[in-house]
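Q: My labmate handed me this sequence with no annotations at all. I'd like to see what the chain might look like in three dimensions before we decide whether it's worth expressing. Could you predict it?
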Amino acid sequence: MNPSQKPDTRPDNPNFSSGPCAKRPGWTPQALSNALLGRSHRSKPGKIRLQKVLDESRDILGLPDDYRIGIVAASDTGAVEMALWSLLGARGVDMLAWESFGSGWITDVTKQLKLDDVRTIKADYGELPDLGSVDFSRDVVFTWNGTTSGVRVADGDWIAADRQGLTICDATSAAFAMDLPWEKLDAVTYSWQKAMGGEAQHGILILSPRAVERLESYTPSWPLPKIFRLTKGGKLIEGVFRGETINTPSMLVVEDALDGLAWGRSVGGLKGLIGRAEGNLKAITGWVEGTPWVDFLATEPALRSCTSVCLKVVDDWFQGLDPDQQAAAAKRIAALLDEEGVAYDIGSYRDAPAGLRIWAGATVEQKDLEALFPWLDWAYQTVKAEFSA
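A: Here is what I predict for the chain of 389 residues:
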């Protein structure tokens, strides 16, 4: 390709950020016109809207009837921290990490909670750790999909059905895009600003009956901030799972979540959402297989994420650069695409290997990805020429 020759077509929507992610197709601010603004979230209409978010989410995700689902503060991070601070300490814990967020949860458990009995089971970016080494007599904390590595677990077969400990799963870039085996998961978290393209601020916490039993039978030795408290007098605060949020939610964000859920239902519910994301991954796979300078960061096809798709540059020219030059070249590729208005925010995560990260969840249209591919080739060849001059 001639580096000076720009492609003729452009994506209609250049938003490929991995969070906040692209809004659903056709979204405009008009979708928020019925937001319950200037009213209390504790008013009858406010409670109805909050409960509707939970009911619609439960139905689309296919949650078991005896699983609780609640809206909590501080996006997915807040939901994960609530689970870690409230549930851990009763048993030893196995912490799994193969990217930055999983590593962050290890830091919180070892340096903030300072638990004594912690095993860390890690893998480098692009790989999964040895899942066969996990001890399910202990609690287990893991991400379902590594948002910053593009590596996901293939299924839940590795999780023991007769486990004694709890499984605590950060599923923020997997919910509504991957099939989660709820019977194998005890505490699950996600946020609206990922696969459903909602706005940030709030997180979702899902609890199995086993997790509820832990909450009601075990009191951590450390003080719990009010925003983390899920029990009172040794009993679950059921209101949290009926839309009675611990802190004040944004009703504008709630309206946006309802809009996203309605769209999700319109494209076929969970099956349709998964199909759109997997279709996008298939399109990216086709381009990668025909493009010699790029490859997936995830080494095994079965482990490649269909949402946060992470790519590495494998061209001999790029591999001949030192690490600082590689990072600069990858950032320049992303910057060029941003300047052209064809792809925003697709640089790799700051702690990940130098490369690109393209969100491909259900809210992204496949035709926009297909329009992006020639631009990726153009940007790479342009940067190669710049650095080689």
